[in-house]
Design a protein that fits this description.
With 220 residues, the chain is of the alpha/beta class. The chain is built from 8 helices and 8 strands. The chain has an 8-stranded parallel beta sheet. Bound molecules: D-xylitol-5-phosphate and zinc ion.
């Protein structure tokens, strides 16, 4: 039985009440805080950055999983480590020197992840899969919460699970975008370990209860 972690994305929280959202996550069955950083360059949207993350990480009692949707992430890796990131994920498409970026993140003492846009094939990770702690499969185009899940993702997760097994690697598989209790079970069946959910959690009437429903739906 593979462990399945739930990582609610604060992108969908009420930013005027981030403290309340953090307290709710601390008390809930959530495993990680997922923090989405957008630069208006790599993705066509701007979210929040270092000052917000350093305040959240101070109150978070759980792993801070920072998803960088930015160009030149190597310029900011150290700053995100200082801001309290425990996991730092960079995009394959933003990193011509991905191997160096991954080593940099690990040498700063963080877990290192690589994210793939929906069109980026899993096979491109063949020569880096043993170096990363996590692969984030985007199941929507990055930049916005609340989009609908791309069905092709199941196949991609299965391909990645096969690559990890064949390579004797240990990377976690995180899925991000359009995740809800309706597809959580199938995602885990395909091979996912970590489920990110933004609007499914924060747009629901009872976010803590939704997290708990996701957790039960995600049992492998
Ligand atoms: C999208 C972000 C996601 C987003 C998911 O670019 O990476 O983490 O918050 O939101 P939902 O769960 O609403 O698709
Ligand atoms: Zn994300």
């Amino acid at each position: 039985n593979r462990p399945v972690l739930i990582a609610p994305s604060l992108l969908a929280a009420n930013f005027l009440e981030l403290g309340k959202a953090a307290a709710m996550l601390n008390e809930s069955e959530a495993d990680w805080f997922h923090l989405d950083v957008m630069d208006g360059r790599f993705v066509p949207n701007i979210s929040f950055g270092l000052p917000v993350i350093s305040q959240i990480s101070k109150v978070a009692k759980k792993t801070c999983d920072v998803h960088l949707m930015i160009e030149e992430p190597e310029k900011y890796a150290e700053a995100f480590q200082k801001a309290g990131a425990n996991m730092l994920t960079v995009h394959y498409e933003a990193c011509p020197h991905l191997h160096r970026n991954i080593q940099q993140i690990k040498s700063l003492g963080m877990k290192a992840g690589v994210a793939l846009n929906p069109h980026t094939p899993v096979g491109l990770l063949e020569n880096i899969i043993r170096d990363v702690d996590m692969v984030l499969i985007m199941s929507v185009n990055p930049g916005f919460g609340g989009q609908s899940f791309i069905e092709q993702t199941y196949h991609k997760i299965a391909q990645l699970r096969q690559l990890i097994t064949d390579s004797n690697a240990h990377a976690l598989i995180e899925v991000d975008g359009g995740v809800s209790a309706d597809n959580a079970g199938q995602l885990v069946q395909a091979g996912a370990n970590v489920l990110v959910a933004g609007s499914a959690v924060f747009a629901s009437a009872d976010p803590a209860k939704t997290i708990s429903e996701l957790k039960s739906a995600a049992v492998a």
